[in-house]
Specification:
Structural class: alpha+beta
Number of domains: 2
Number of strands: 6
Strand order of the largest sheet: 3-4-5-6
Strand content: 15-25%
Oligomer: single chain
Radius of gyration: 28 Å
Distance between the termini: 98 Å
Largest sheet: 4 strands, mixed
Length: 217
């Protein structure tokens, strides 16, 4: 004679199996109906590709401490923040390339993000350095968020660090003229210096970073 508790257990397992079979059958039917009706969860449109545009890069040269203008054709989105990140990514790709005149590893992935904000208030001395036309066109502050890996591997030295910082500032201003100020973060946090020398705690003026071509900044 089968014990009563085994009978109850068998009955519960049987009922559970029947319920699971019904649920699986319903799910199968729903999936079949979606296929028949042409419903598909996959994207129906190809992702948009940004058009190629001319970008102006201010490329540092360690041989003479200068910055030289280079024009590159890049896919640039309409969003200003995305455009800023794209041009800076290309600039750092040049620095990471073999034989670069300003060798810095990391490339485009070193830019964690670029955020555009209204320009901060300037003291009278700084305000005098900002072009009047820039003041009348809603000047912006670009917050450039660098990765910790980029900073950790950046060559140490006042000139090489300064060239990196100034070339970033000048490149931003050359492509988005409304950017008149640049601030740096590292992994989203303030940092005193880039690699022991170039000051990252200050707000840079774009007008101070743009040199005459081939001349020391």
């Amino acid at each position: 004679m089968i014990p009563r508790y085994q009978t109850i257990l068998f009955t519960l397992l049987l009922l559970t199996s029947v319920v699971m079979a019904v649920v699986l059958w319903q799910l199968r039917e729903r999936a079949h109906q979606r296929l028949l009706s042409g419903q598909d969860s996959s994207p129906t449109q190809a992702p948009e590709v940004a058009p190629q545009e001319q970008a102006t890069l201010l490329v540092a040269n360690d041989n003479d401490g200068s910055m030289i203008t280079q024009v590159q054709s890049l896919p640039l989105a309409q969003d200003p923040g995305a455009r800023a990140r794209a041009v800076l990514g290309k600039l750092l790709d040049l620095y990471a390339a073999p034989g670069a005149n300003h060798p810095v590893s990391g490339g485009a992935s070193s830019i964690a993000g670029v955020f555009l904000l209204p320009a901060v208030n300037l003291d009278p001395t700084q305000a005098a350095a900002v072009d009047t036309n820039q003041q009348s066109s809603s000047p912006q502050l670009a917050v450039v968020n660098l990765t910790g890996a980029f900073v950790a591997t950046h060559p140490s030295g006042l000139e090489t660090e300064t060239l990196t910082v100034l070339s970033i500032c000048a490149t931003l201003h050359a492509n988005l003229p409304r950017i008149t100020q640049v601030r740096f973060l590292v992994d989203g946090q303030p940092r005193a210096t880039l690699a022991g020398h170039a000051d990252l705690s200050r707000v840079y003026l774009a007008s101070e970073a743009v040199p005459t071509e081939g001349i020391h900044p």
